[in-house]
Amino acid sequence: MNNYSKKSTLVIGAFFFVAMVIVVRLFWIQVVDTSYKVTASNNVLRYEVEYPARGLITDRNGVLLVDNQTAYDIMVVARELKTFDTTAFCTIFNIPVQQFKATINDIYRRRRSLGYQPVAVMKQAPAEYYAVFQEQAYKFPGFYAQARSLRNYPRPIAGNLLGYVTEVDTATINKNPYYKPGDYIGRSGIEEAYEYYLSGKKGISIYVRDVHNKIKESYRDGAYDSIPVAGTNLICTIDGDLQEYGEWLMKNKVGSVVAIEPATGEILALISSPGIDPRLLVGINRNFQRMQSDPLKPLFNRAIMSPYPPGSTFKVVNALIGLNEGVVFPHTRYNCYHGYKIGRGVGCHGHPSPIDMTQSIQMSCNAYYCYVFRDIIDNPKYESIEQSFVQWCDYVRSFGFGKKTGIDIPSEQSGSLPSVPLYNRTFGEKRWKSLSIISLAIGQAELGSTPLQMANLASIVANRGYYHTPHLIRGMQDSSFTDKYKERHYTMVDTAYFPVVVEGMYRAVHGGAGATAWRAMIPGIEMCGKTGTAQNPHGEDHSTFMCFAPRENPKIVIAAYIENAGFGATWAAPIASLMVEKYLNKEVKRKDLEKYIQENKPVKKEKHEGKP
Predict the structure, then answer these.
(1) Residue 181: which domain range?
(2) Are residues 109 and 36 in contact, defined by beta-carbon separation less than 8 angstroms?
(3) H helix or E strand, kind and range, residue 547
(4) Which helix (DSSP H) or strand (DSSP E) does residue 579 occupy?
(5) 146 and 252 both lie in a single domain
(6) Shared-domain flag, residues 227 and 275
(7) Measured between alpha carbons, how far is 466 from 453 in angstroms, rounded to an integer?
(8) Is residue 321 within 8 Å of 468, Cβ to Cβ?
(9) DSSP 3-state of 71
(10) Nearest to 519 by CA among 596, 608, 439
(11) Which CATH number do you get for residue 560?
(12) Global pTM exceeds 0.90
Protein backbone atom coordinates (compact mmCIF):
# COMPACT_ATOMS: atom_id res chain seq x y z
CA MET A 1 0.00 0.00 0.00
CA ASN A 2 1.45 3.35 -1.00
CA ASN A 3 1.64 6.41 1.24
CA TYR A 4 -1.39 8.01 -0.44
CA SER A 5 -3.61 5.02 0.33
CA LYS A 6 -2.42 4.97 3.94
CA LYS A 7 -3.30 8.65 4.42
CA SER A 8 -6.74 8.15 2.83
CA THR A 9 -7.46 5.24 5.13
CA LEU A 10 -6.47 7.28 8.19
CA VAL A 11 -8.67 10.23 7.15
CA ILE A 12 -11.68 7.99 6.48
CA GLY A 13 -11.14 6.20 9.78
CA ALA A 14 -10.95 9.45 11.69
CA PHE A 15 -14.10 10.70 10.00
CA PHE A 16 -16.05 7.57 10.95
CA PHE A 17 -14.72 7.74 14.52
CA VAL A 18 -15.90 11.36 14.96
CA ALA A 19 -19.26 10.52 13.37
CA MET A 20 -19.70 7.58 15.75
CA VAL A 21 -18.91 9.78 18.79
CA ILE A 22 -21.53 12.32 17.66
CA VAL A 23 -24.16 9.62 17.09
CA VAL A 24 -23.52 8.03 20.47
CA ARG A 25 -23.66 11.44 22.20
CA LEU A 26 -26.93 12.35 20.47
CA PHE A 27 -28.41 8.98 21.43
CA TRP A 28 -27.39 9.57 25.03
CA ILE A 29 -28.84 13.07 25.12
CA GLN A 30 -32.10 12.27 23.31
CA VAL A 31 -32.86 8.77 24.62
CA VAL A 32 -30.89 7.88 27.72
CA ASP A 33 -30.32 11.21 29.53
CA THR A 34 -33.69 12.93 30.06
CA SER A 35 -32.29 15.91 31.97
CA TYR A 36 -32.14 17.97 28.78
CA LYS A 37 -35.88 17.61 28.47
CA VAL A 38 -36.42 19.55 31.67
CA THR A 39 -34.66 22.76 30.70
CA ALA A 40 -36.51 26.07 31.04
CA SER A 41 -36.58 26.44 27.25
CA ASN A 42 -38.88 23.44 26.87
CA ASN A 43 -42.32 25.00 26.34
CA VAL A 44 -44.12 21.72 27.04
CA LEU A 45 -43.13 22.01 30.70
CA ARG A 46 -44.07 24.57 33.34
CA TYR A 47 -41.74 25.38 36.20
CA GLU A 48 -42.97 26.68 39.53
CA VAL A 49 -40.41 27.79 42.09
CA GLU A 50 -41.26 27.04 45.70
CA TYR A 51 -39.64 29.48 48.09
CA PRO A 52 -38.56 28.28 51.54
CA ALA A 53 -39.49 29.85 54.84
CA ARG A 54 -36.64 32.02 56.06
CA GLY A 55 -34.99 31.01 59.33
CA LEU A 56 -36.38 32.45 62.56
CA ILE A 57 -34.35 34.63 64.93
CA THR A 58 -34.84 34.48 68.70
CA ASP A 59 -33.19 36.42 71.50
CA ARG A 60 -30.91 34.78 74.08
CA ASN A 61 -33.97 33.74 76.13
CA GLY A 62 -35.76 32.05 73.23
CA VAL A 63 -38.22 34.89 72.63
CA LEU A 64 -39.01 35.45 68.95
CA LEU A 65 -37.53 38.55 67.37
CA VAL A 66 -38.20 37.66 63.73
CA ASP A 67 -40.56 35.12 62.16
CA ASN A 68 -42.42 34.89 58.85
CA GLN A 69 -45.74 35.78 57.30
CA THR A 70 -47.08 34.56 53.98
CA ALA A 71 -47.81 36.84 51.05
CA TYR A 72 -48.46 36.05 47.41
CA ASP A 73 -47.03 37.24 44.12
CA ILE A 74 -49.68 37.14 41.40
CA MET A 75 -48.03 35.75 38.28
CA VAL A 76 -49.15 35.60 34.66
CA VAL A 77 -47.89 33.49 31.76
CA ALA A 78 -48.00 35.71 28.65
CA ARG A 79 -48.70 32.88 26.20
CA GLU A 80 -51.74 31.85 28.24
CA LEU A 81 -53.31 35.32 28.40
CA LYS A 82 -56.88 35.50 27.16
CA THR A 83 -59.61 38.09 27.42
CA PHE A 84 -60.68 38.53 31.05
CA ASP A 85 -62.52 40.99 33.27
CA THR A 86 -59.83 43.47 34.32
CA THR A 87 -62.25 45.39 36.53
CA ALA A 88 -63.10 42.27 38.52
CA PHE A 89 -59.39 41.48 38.88
CA CYS A 90 -58.58 44.99 40.13
CA THR A 91 -61.50 44.89 42.56
CA ILE A 92 -60.08 41.77 44.20
CA PHE A 93 -56.68 43.39 44.77
CA ASN A 94 -57.84 46.99 45.20
CA ILE A 95 -55.57 48.38 42.47
CA PRO A 96 -56.17 51.10 39.82
CA VAL A 97 -57.75 49.69 36.64
CA GLN A 98 -55.92 51.90 34.13
CA GLN A 99 -52.53 51.19 35.66
CA PHE A 100 -53.22 47.45 35.61
CA LYS A 101 -54.41 47.55 31.99
CA ALA A 102 -51.18 49.26 30.98
CA THR A 103 -49.18 46.50 32.66
CA ILE A 104 -51.17 43.73 30.95
CA ASN A 105 -50.94 45.42 27.53
CA ASP A 106 -47.18 45.63 27.89
CA ILE A 107 -46.95 41.94 28.79
CA TYR A 108 -49.23 41.02 25.87
CA ARG A 109 -47.04 42.96 23.42
CA ARG A 110 -44.02 41.01 24.66
CA ARG A 111 -45.76 37.62 24.73
CA ARG A 112 -43.59 36.12 21.99
CA SER A 113 -40.33 36.98 23.71
CA LEU A 114 -41.68 36.07 27.15
CA GLY A 115 -43.10 32.74 25.99
CA TYR A 116 -44.03 30.66 29.00
CA GLN A 117 -41.88 32.64 31.40
CA PRO A 118 -44.10 33.84 34.26
CA VAL A 119 -44.18 37.56 35.08
CA ALA A 120 -45.29 39.12 38.37
CA VAL A 121 -48.17 41.58 37.90
CA MET A 122 -48.61 42.15 41.63
CA LYS A 123 -46.14 41.50 44.43
CA GLN A 124 -46.78 40.58 48.03
CA ALA A 125 -50.56 40.46 47.99
CA PRO A 126 -51.93 39.86 51.50
CA ALA A 127 -53.48 36.51 52.39
CA GLU A 128 -57.02 37.96 52.44
CA TYR A 129 -56.69 39.06 48.80
CA TYR A 130 -55.26 35.70 47.84
CA ALA A 131 -58.21 33.84 49.38
CA VAL A 132 -60.69 35.78 47.22
CA PHE A 133 -58.52 35.33 44.13
CA GLN A 134 -58.36 31.56 44.59
CA GLU A 135 -62.15 31.34 44.58
CA GLN A 136 -62.31 33.20 41.26
CA ALA A 137 -59.08 32.05 39.62
CA TYR A 138 -60.97 30.25 36.84
CA LYS A 139 -62.04 33.67 35.53
CA PHE A 140 -58.45 34.73 34.88
CA PRO A 141 -56.69 32.35 32.46
CA GLY A 142 -52.92 32.47 32.65
CA PHE A 143 -52.82 33.84 36.20
CA TYR A 144 -51.70 31.98 39.30
CA ALA A 145 -50.44 32.82 42.81
CA GLN A 146 -46.86 32.27 43.96
CA ALA A 147 -46.50 31.97 47.75
CA ARG A 148 -43.75 34.11 49.29
CA SER A 149 -42.40 34.36 52.81
CA LEU A 150 -42.07 37.86 54.27
CA ARG A 151 -40.53 38.89 57.58
CA ASN A 152 -42.69 39.54 60.61
CA TYR A 153 -41.63 41.21 63.86
CA PRO A 154 -43.54 40.22 67.02
CA ARG A 155 -41.93 43.21 68.74
CA PRO A 156 -40.67 46.11 66.59
CA ILE A 157 -37.17 46.44 68.04
CA ALA A 158 -33.52 46.07 67.02
CA GLY A 159 -34.04 47.04 63.38
CA ASN A 160 -30.48 48.28 62.89
CA LEU A 161 -28.86 45.09 64.13
CA LEU A 162 -31.37 42.67 62.57
CA GLY A 163 -31.28 44.25 59.10
CA TYR A 164 -34.02 43.71 56.53
CA VAL A 165 -34.93 41.58 53.51
CA THR A 166 -35.37 43.03 50.03
CA GLU A 167 -35.59 41.96 46.40
CA VAL A 168 -32.27 40.94 44.94
CA ASP A 169 -30.56 43.39 42.59
CA THR A 170 -28.86 42.80 39.24
CA ALA A 171 -25.34 43.08 40.67
CA THR A 172 -26.01 40.25 43.14
CA ILE A 173 -27.56 38.08 40.42
CA ASN A 174 -24.47 38.56 38.26
CA LYS A 175 -22.20 37.56 41.16
CA ASN A 176 -24.26 34.60 42.36
CA PRO A 177 -26.29 32.64 39.78
CA TYR A 178 -28.32 30.98 42.54
CA TYR A 179 -30.37 34.16 42.81
CA LYS A 180 -32.90 34.97 40.10
CA PRO A 181 -34.97 38.10 39.45
CA GLY A 182 -37.72 38.31 42.04
CA ASP A 183 -35.77 36.45 44.75
CA TYR A 184 -35.28 38.04 48.16
CA ILE A 185 -32.01 38.52 50.04
CA GLY A 186 -30.90 39.85 53.44
CA ARG A 187 -29.53 43.38 53.54
CA SER A 188 -27.54 44.82 56.46
CA GLY A 189 -27.31 43.43 59.96
CA ILE A 190 -27.87 39.79 60.83
CA GLU A 191 -30.05 39.23 57.76
CA GLU A 192 -27.09 39.97 55.48
CA ALA A 193 -24.31 38.46 57.58
CA TYR A 194 -26.13 35.14 57.99
CA GLU A 195 -27.92 35.06 54.61
CA TYR A 196 -26.40 31.66 53.81
CA TYR A 197 -28.03 30.09 56.87
CA LEU A 198 -31.28 32.06 56.96
CA SER A 199 -32.25 31.84 53.29
CA GLY A 200 -32.71 28.09 53.01
CA LYS A 201 -32.90 26.42 49.60
CA LYS A 202 -35.48 26.94 46.87
CA GLY A 203 -37.53 24.02 45.56
CA ILE A 204 -39.07 23.52 42.12
CA SER A 205 -42.08 21.67 40.71
CA ILE A 206 -42.21 20.73 37.01
CA TYR A 207 -45.54 20.12 35.28
CA VAL A 208 -46.50 18.86 31.82
CA ARG A 209 -48.86 20.95 29.64
CA ASP A 210 -51.34 19.52 27.19
CA VAL A 211 -52.00 20.89 23.68
CA HIS A 212 -54.27 23.52 25.21
CA ASN A 213 -51.49 24.69 27.54
CA LYS A 214 -53.30 23.31 30.57
CA ILE A 215 -51.32 21.64 33.32
CA LYS A 216 -51.93 17.92 33.00
CA GLU A 217 -49.60 16.22 35.47
CA SER A 218 -46.23 16.33 37.21
CA TYR A 219 -43.37 15.63 34.89
CA ARG A 220 -42.19 12.02 35.35
CA ASP A 221 -44.14 11.74 38.59
CA GLY A 222 -42.05 14.46 40.20
CA ALA A 223 -38.70 12.74 39.60
CA TYR A 224 -37.08 16.10 38.86
CA ASP A 225 -38.95 18.08 41.50
CA SER A 226 -37.21 19.31 44.62
CA ILE A 227 -38.77 20.43 47.86
CA PRO A 228 -37.77 23.72 49.48
CA VAL A 229 -35.50 23.52 52.52
CA ALA A 230 -36.38 25.99 55.26
CA GLY A 231 -33.71 28.38 56.51
CA THR A 232 -31.81 27.73 59.72
CA ASN A 233 -33.10 29.29 62.93
CA LEU A 234 -30.61 31.55 64.72
CA ILE A 235 -30.24 32.33 68.41
CA CYS A 236 -29.24 35.95 68.96
CA THR A 237 -27.15 37.09 71.94
CA ILE A 238 -29.26 40.14 72.75
CA ASP A 239 -31.71 40.33 75.61
CA GLY A 240 -34.95 41.47 73.97
CA ASP A 241 -36.26 43.14 77.12
CA LEU A 242 -33.03 45.11 77.63
CA GLN A 243 -32.92 46.11 73.95
CA GLU A 244 -36.52 47.31 74.06
CA TYR A 245 -35.94 49.21 77.31
CA GLY A 246 -32.82 50.90 75.97
CA GLU A 247 -34.60 51.99 72.79
CA TRP A 248 -37.41 53.40 74.93
CA LEU A 249 -34.93 55.45 76.98
CA MET A 250 -33.22 56.72 73.82
CA LYS A 251 -36.36 58.14 72.22
CA ASN A 252 -35.88 61.79 71.22
CA LYS A 253 -32.12 61.42 71.52
CA VAL A 254 -29.35 60.92 68.98
CA GLY A 255 -26.63 58.46 69.82
CA SER A 256 -25.96 54.87 70.73
CA VAL A 257 -25.86 52.41 73.63
CA VAL A 258 -24.01 49.08 73.54
CA ALA A 259 -24.20 46.45 76.29
CA ILE A 260 -21.94 43.38 76.40
CA GLU A 261 -21.58 40.36 78.67
CA PRO A 262 -17.81 40.67 79.36
CA ALA A 263 -17.23 37.00 80.19
CA THR A 264 -18.29 35.91 76.69
CA GLY A 265 -18.32 38.95 74.38
CA GLU A 266 -22.03 38.39 73.73
CA ILE A 267 -23.81 41.64 72.91
CA LEU A 268 -26.83 42.14 75.18
CA ALA A 269 -28.12 45.29 73.47
CA LEU A 270 -27.00 47.32 70.49
CA ILE A 271 -28.98 50.52 70.10
CA SER A 272 -28.69 53.21 67.47
CA SER A 273 -30.99 56.18 67.85
CA PRO A 274 -32.97 57.18 65.94
CA GLY A 275 -33.23 53.69 64.57
CA ILE A 276 -35.28 51.55 62.22
CA ASP A 277 -38.73 50.23 62.95
CA PRO A 278 -38.18 46.90 61.15
CA ARG A 279 -41.87 46.65 60.22
CA LEU A 280 -41.47 49.62 57.86
CA LEU A 281 -38.98 47.74 55.68
CA VAL A 282 -41.02 44.56 55.25
CA GLY A 283 -41.71 43.62 51.64
CA ILE A 284 -40.97 45.96 48.77
CA ASN A 285 -39.53 48.67 51.03
CA ARG A 286 -41.80 51.59 50.16
CA ASN A 287 -40.31 53.47 53.12
CA PHE A 288 -36.64 52.95 52.25
CA GLN A 289 -36.17 56.17 50.28
CA ARG A 290 -37.84 58.24 52.99
CA MET A 291 -35.54 56.73 55.63
CA GLN A 292 -32.50 57.21 53.44
CA SER A 293 -33.22 60.92 53.01
CA ASP A 294 -34.03 61.51 56.69
CA PRO A 295 -31.42 64.00 58.05
CA LEU A 296 -31.23 62.03 61.32
CA LYS A 297 -30.09 58.95 59.34
CA PRO A 298 -32.04 56.12 60.99
CA LEU A 299 -30.44 53.61 58.58
CA PHE A 300 -26.98 54.61 59.84
CA ASN A 301 -25.97 52.22 62.62
CA ARG A 302 -24.13 54.60 64.95
CA ALA A 303 -23.13 51.76 67.28
CA ILE A 304 -20.67 50.32 64.77
CA MET A 305 -20.25 53.07 62.17
CA SER A 306 -19.86 56.40 63.95
CA PRO A 307 -16.25 57.26 64.97
CA TYR A 308 -16.80 59.62 67.92
CA PRO A 309 -13.94 61.07 69.99
CA PRO A 310 -13.88 58.90 73.15
CA GLY A 311 -13.25 61.88 75.44
CA SER A 312 -12.34 61.30 79.06
CA THR A 313 -13.29 57.61 79.00
CA PHE A 314 -9.96 57.21 77.19
CA LYS A 315 -8.04 58.35 80.28
CA VAL A 316 -8.11 54.79 81.64
CA VAL A 317 -6.12 53.67 78.57
CA ASN A 318 -3.39 56.28 79.14
CA ALA A 319 -3.34 55.40 82.84
CA LEU A 320 -2.71 51.72 82.05
CA ILE A 321 -0.08 52.49 79.39
CA GLY A 322 1.74 54.81 81.82
CA LEU A 323 1.73 52.13 84.52
CA ASN A 324 3.01 49.46 82.15
CA GLU A 325 5.74 51.77 80.81
CA GLY A 326 6.84 52.56 84.34
CA VAL A 327 6.55 56.32 83.92
CA VAL A 328 3.77 56.68 86.48
CA PHE A 329 2.73 54.71 89.57
CA PRO A 330 -0.52 54.35 91.54
CA HIS A 331 0.83 56.71 94.20
CA THR A 332 2.11 59.33 91.69
CA ARG A 333 0.57 62.70 92.48
CA TYR A 334 0.20 65.73 90.22
CA ASN A 335 -1.13 69.20 90.87
CA CYS A 336 -4.16 70.60 89.09
CA TYR A 337 -5.16 74.22 89.36
CA HIS A 338 -8.12 74.28 86.99
CA GLY A 339 -6.07 72.67 84.26
CA TYR A 340 -2.71 72.03 82.65
CA LYS A 341 -0.93 75.36 82.24
CA ILE A 342 1.95 74.53 79.89
CA GLY A 343 1.72 75.58 76.24
CA ARG A 344 -1.79 76.34 75.06
CA GLY A 345 -3.04 74.62 78.19
CA VAL A 346 -5.94 72.26 78.83
CA GLY A 347 -8.71 73.36 81.16
CA CYS A 348 -10.15 71.31 84.01
CA HIS A 349 -12.96 71.60 86.54
CA GLY A 350 -12.47 72.37 90.19
CA HIS A 351 -11.40 69.49 92.46
CA PRO A 352 -8.88 68.82 95.28
CA SER A 353 -5.19 68.95 94.36
CA PRO A 354 -2.74 67.22 94.25
CA ILE A 355 -4.24 63.82 93.52
CA ASP A 356 -2.98 60.28 92.87
CA MET A 357 -4.00 57.97 90.01
CA THR A 358 -7.12 56.50 91.62
CA GLN A 359 -8.37 59.98 92.47
CA SER A 360 -7.53 61.19 88.96
CA ILE A 361 -10.01 58.67 87.53
CA GLN A 362 -12.56 59.38 90.25
CA MET A 363 -12.43 63.13 89.55
CA SER A 364 -11.57 62.86 85.84
CA CYS A 365 -8.66 65.27 86.05
CA ASN A 366 -7.47 66.59 82.69
CA ALA A 367 -4.19 67.98 84.03
CA TYR A 368 -3.18 64.63 85.54
CA TYR A 369 -3.42 62.91 82.17
CA CYS A 370 -1.55 65.64 80.38
CA TYR A 371 1.36 64.87 82.70
CA VAL A 372 0.94 61.12 82.20
CA PHE A 373 0.72 61.36 78.42
CA ARG A 374 3.83 63.56 78.17
CA ASP A 375 5.70 61.11 80.41
CA ILE A 376 4.75 58.30 78.02
CA ILE A 377 5.74 60.13 74.84
CA ASP A 378 8.88 61.75 76.26
CA ASN A 379 10.10 58.49 77.83
CA PRO A 380 13.96 58.58 77.56
CA LYS A 381 14.18 54.83 76.89
CA TYR A 382 13.06 55.54 73.32
CA GLU A 383 15.49 57.07 70.83
CA SER A 384 12.95 59.49 69.34
CA ILE A 385 9.46 60.81 69.84
CA GLU A 386 8.42 58.96 66.69
CA GLN A 387 9.50 55.66 68.24
CA SER A 388 7.70 56.27 71.54
CA PHE A 389 4.59 57.43 69.69
CA VAL A 390 4.52 54.26 67.56
CA GLN A 391 4.76 52.23 70.77
CA TRP A 392 1.88 54.22 72.24
CA CYS A 393 -0.19 53.51 69.12
CA ASP A 394 0.56 49.79 69.45
CA TYR A 395 -0.69 49.89 73.04
CA VAL A 396 -3.87 51.71 72.02
CA ARG A 397 -4.49 49.29 69.16
CA SER A 398 -4.24 46.35 71.58
CA PHE A 399 -7.25 47.86 73.38
CA GLY A 400 -9.27 47.51 70.18
CA PHE A 401 -8.95 51.06 68.87
CA GLY A 402 -8.04 51.90 65.28
CA LYS A 403 -9.24 48.53 64.01
CA LYS A 404 -12.50 46.62 63.65
CA THR A 405 -13.58 44.51 66.60
CA GLY A 406 -14.76 41.75 64.24
CA ILE A 407 -18.45 41.88 65.16
CA ASP A 408 -20.47 39.46 63.04
CA ILE A 409 -22.53 42.00 61.07
CA PRO A 410 -21.38 44.07 58.08
CA SER A 411 -20.45 47.76 57.81
CA GLU A 412 -18.40 48.03 61.01
CA GLN A 413 -15.95 50.95 60.93
CA SER A 414 -12.47 50.83 62.46
CA GLY A 415 -12.51 54.28 64.03
CA SER A 416 -9.39 56.40 63.73
CA LEU A 417 -5.93 56.42 65.24
CA PRO A 418 -3.29 59.02 64.34
CA SER A 419 0.09 58.08 62.89
CA VAL A 420 3.63 59.44 62.54
CA PRO A 421 3.12 60.28 58.82
CA LEU A 422 -0.02 62.24 59.72
CA TYR A 423 1.82 64.38 62.25
CA ASN A 424 4.81 64.80 59.93
CA ARG A 425 2.44 66.23 57.35
CA THR A 426 0.66 68.40 59.93
CA PHE A 427 3.63 69.82 61.83
CA GLY A 428 6.62 68.96 59.66
CA GLU A 429 9.07 66.10 60.05
CA LYS A 430 10.96 66.23 63.37
CA ARG A 431 9.03 69.40 64.28
CA TRP A 432 6.39 67.98 66.63
CA LYS A 433 6.58 66.87 70.24
CA SER A 434 4.37 65.59 73.05
CA LEU A 435 2.94 69.05 73.70
CA SER A 436 1.89 69.31 70.03
CA ILE A 437 -0.47 66.32 70.43
CA ILE A 438 -1.50 66.85 74.06
CA SER A 439 -5.22 66.51 73.25
CA LEU A 440 -4.66 62.74 72.91
CA ALA A 441 -4.17 62.73 76.68
CA ILE A 442 -7.91 63.24 77.18
CA GLY A 443 -9.27 61.27 74.21
CA GLN A 444 -9.61 64.14 71.75
CA ALA A 445 -7.84 65.28 68.56
CA GLU A 446 -7.49 62.60 65.88
CA LEU A 447 -8.85 59.76 68.01
CA GLY A 448 -12.15 58.26 66.89
CA SER A 449 -13.94 55.25 68.40
CA THR A 450 -17.30 53.65 67.84
CA PRO A 451 -19.63 53.01 70.79
CA LEU A 452 -18.93 49.29 70.25
CA GLN A 453 -15.19 49.92 70.71
CA MET A 454 -15.92 51.88 73.88
CA ALA A 455 -18.05 49.03 75.24
CA ASN A 456 -15.21 46.69 74.33
CA LEU A 457 -12.85 48.89 76.37
CA ALA A 458 -15.21 48.55 79.33
CA SER A 459 -15.10 44.75 78.84
CA ILE A 460 -11.29 44.83 78.94
CA VAL A 461 -11.28 46.67 82.26
CA ALA A 462 -14.09 44.49 83.65
CA ASN A 463 -12.08 41.36 82.72
CA ARG A 464 -8.87 42.93 84.08
CA GLY A 465 -6.99 42.85 80.81
CA TYR A 466 -8.67 40.93 78.00
CA TYR A 467 -11.77 40.76 75.82
CA HIS A 468 -13.68 38.30 73.67
CA THR A 469 -14.67 39.32 70.15
CA PRO A 470 -18.09 41.00 70.44
CA HIS A 471 -20.78 39.06 68.58
CA LEU A 472 -24.55 38.91 68.03
CA ILE A 473 -25.21 35.23 67.26
CA ARG A 474 -24.56 32.57 69.88
CA GLY A 475 -25.83 29.54 67.96
CA MET A 476 -28.22 28.06 65.44
CA GLN A 477 -30.76 25.39 66.26
CA ASP A 478 -28.75 22.44 67.59
CA SER A 479 -25.26 23.82 67.00
CA SER A 480 -23.21 26.59 68.58
CA PHE A 481 -20.97 29.37 67.28
CA THR A 482 -19.42 30.02 70.67
CA ASP A 483 -16.17 28.09 70.14
CA LYS A 484 -14.66 30.68 67.84
CA TYR A 485 -15.45 33.41 70.38
CA LYS A 486 -13.77 31.72 73.35
CA GLU A 487 -10.34 33.11 72.55
CA ARG A 488 -9.12 35.78 74.94
CA HIS A 489 -7.52 38.83 73.36
CA TYR A 490 -5.10 40.39 75.84
CA THR A 491 -3.82 43.94 75.73
CA MET A 492 -0.13 44.82 75.90
CA VAL A 493 -0.61 45.98 79.51
CA ASP A 494 0.20 43.59 82.33
CA THR A 495 -3.02 42.44 84.02
CA ALA A 496 -1.50 43.36 87.42
CA TYR A 497 -2.15 47.06 86.71
CA PHE A 498 -5.91 46.86 86.11
CA PRO A 499 -7.08 46.85 89.77
CA VAL A 500 -5.87 50.45 90.15
CA VAL A 501 -8.12 51.58 87.30
CA VAL A 502 -11.03 49.47 88.58
CA GLU A 503 -10.75 51.17 91.97
CA GLY A 504 -10.75 54.59 90.31
CA MET A 505 -13.86 53.73 88.27
CA TYR A 506 -15.57 52.41 91.40
CA ARG A 507 -14.86 55.67 93.23
CA ALA A 508 -16.12 57.68 90.25
CA VAL A 509 -19.57 56.24 91.05
CA HIS A 510 -19.41 55.62 94.81
CA GLY A 511 -16.69 58.02 95.95
CA GLY A 512 -18.89 60.85 97.20
CA ALA A 513 -17.48 64.38 96.85
CA GLY A 514 -15.59 64.79 93.60
CA ALA A 515 -17.03 61.62 92.05
CA THR A 516 -18.00 62.54 88.50
CA ALA A 517 -20.41 59.61 87.97
CA TRP A 518 -22.39 59.73 91.21
CA ARG A 519 -25.66 60.02 89.27
CA ALA A 520 -25.08 56.48 87.99
CA MET A 521 -25.13 54.95 91.47
CA ILE A 522 -27.64 52.09 91.89
CA PRO A 523 -28.69 51.08 95.42
CA GLY A 524 -27.40 47.59 96.19
CA ILE A 525 -25.13 47.31 93.14
CA GLU A 526 -21.40 48.01 93.11
CA MET A 527 -20.78 49.69 89.77
CA CYS A 528 -17.59 51.01 88.21
CA GLY A 529 -17.85 53.81 85.65
CA LYS A 530 -16.10 56.59 83.80
CA THR A 531 -17.73 59.71 82.42
CA GLY A 532 -16.64 61.67 79.39
CA THR A 533 -17.57 64.92 77.70
CA ALA A 534 -16.26 64.76 74.16
CA GLN A 535 -15.56 68.05 72.46
CA ASN A 536 -17.41 68.48 69.19
CA PRO A 537 -16.15 71.12 66.73
CA HIS A 538 -19.45 70.98 64.83
CA GLY A 539 -21.79 71.75 67.70
CA GLU A 540 -22.50 71.06 71.34
CA ASP A 541 -20.34 68.49 73.15
CA HIS A 542 -21.21 64.81 73.31
CA SER A 543 -22.12 63.05 76.57
CA THR A 544 -20.46 59.67 77.08
CA PHE A 545 -20.13 57.07 79.80
CA MET A 546 -18.83 53.53 80.16
CA CYS A 547 -19.37 51.20 83.09
CA PHE A 548 -19.55 47.63 84.32
CA ALA A 549 -21.33 45.90 87.18
CA PRO A 550 -21.05 44.32 89.61
CA ARG A 551 -17.47 45.20 90.49
CA GLU A 552 -16.49 41.56 91.03
CA ASN A 553 -17.48 38.98 88.39
CA PRO A 554 -19.16 41.60 86.18
CA LYS A 555 -22.27 40.50 84.29
CA ILE A 556 -22.70 43.52 82.05
CA VAL A 557 -20.71 46.40 80.58
CA ILE A 558 -22.30 49.39 78.87
CA ALA A 559 -21.07 52.28 76.76
CA ALA A 560 -23.50 55.13 76.12
CA TYR A 561 -22.88 58.00 73.73
CA ILE A 562 -25.44 60.80 73.45
CA GLU A 563 -24.75 63.40 70.78
CA ASN A 564 -24.82 67.12 71.69
CA ALA A 565 -25.83 66.38 75.27
CA GLY A 566 -23.05 68.03 77.29
CA PHE A 567 -21.46 66.59 80.42
CA GLY A 568 -21.23 62.77 80.55
CA ALA A 569 -22.90 62.51 83.96
CA THR A 570 -26.05 64.34 82.82
CA TRP A 571 -27.40 62.01 80.12
CA ALA A 572 -25.11 59.12 79.23
CA ALA A 573 -24.45 57.97 82.81
CA PRO A 574 -28.12 57.85 83.92
CA ILE A 575 -29.17 56.00 80.75
CA ALA A 576 -26.42 53.41 81.20
CA SER A 577 -27.15 52.96 84.90
CA LEU A 578 -30.89 52.48 84.30
CA MET A 579 -30.08 49.75 81.79
CA VAL A 580 -27.71 48.07 84.27
CA GLU A 581 -30.45 48.16 86.91
CA LYS A 582 -32.97 46.74 84.45
CA TYR A 583 -30.68 43.88 83.46
CA LEU A 584 -29.39 42.89 86.89
CA ASN A 585 -32.55 43.49 88.94
CA LYS A 586 -35.14 42.80 86.20
CA GLU A 587 -36.94 45.97 87.29
CA VAL A 588 -36.19 49.65 87.78
CA LYS A 589 -37.07 51.30 91.07
CA ARG A 590 -35.69 54.76 90.29
CA LYS A 591 -38.89 55.76 88.56
CA ASP A 592 -38.34 59.51 88.80
CA LEU A 593 -35.01 59.26 87.01
CA GLU A 594 -36.47 56.86 84.46
CA LYS A 595 -39.37 59.19 83.73
CA TYR A 596 -37.10 62.22 83.37
CA ILE A 597 -34.73 60.47 80.95
CA GLN A 598 -37.50 58.99 78.83
CA GLU A 599 -39.65 62.11 78.56
CA ASN A 600 -36.89 64.67 78.00
CA LYS A 601 -34.06 65.31 75.62
CA PRO A 602 -30.90 67.45 75.69
CA VAL A 603 -31.88 71.03 74.87
CA LYS A 604 -28.87 73.20 75.58
CA LYS A 605 -25.14 73.08 76.01
CA GLU A 606 -23.98 72.67 79.58
CA LYS A 607 -21.06 74.82 80.62
CA HIS A 608 -18.50 72.68 82.37
CA GLU A 609 -14.93 73.87 82.44
CA GLY A 610 -12.47 71.24 81.35
CA LYS A 611 -15.15 68.81 80.15
CA PRO A 612 -14.05 65.78 82.18
Answers:
(1) 45-77+111-236
(2) no
(3) strand 542-549
(4) helix 572-585
(5) no
(6) no
(7) 13
(8) no
(9) strand
(10) 596
(11) 3.40.710.10
(12) no
